[in-house]
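User: Predict the structure for this protein chain, please.
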Amino acid sequence: MAKADDIEVTGKVIVVLPGNKFKVKLDDVDRTILCHLSGRMRKNRIKVILGDNIEATMSPYDLTLGRITRRN
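Assistant: Here is the predicted structure, written as structure tokens:
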């Protein structure tokens, strides 16, 4: 699967879970997804806290999981 197939979404962190996982409420639709930090964010030690606006990518195969790629 190519990166072009990924779905870009924006949202807000509503719950912080252990293991660098977050519950994110999407802006476009009334849906909550489970996200984890991307490798680049872990490598550069970018912190994500409760209430942050983020950008995430989702696979078209599973619309309940995502990867946080940017913090706004």
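The chain has a mean pLDDT of 94.
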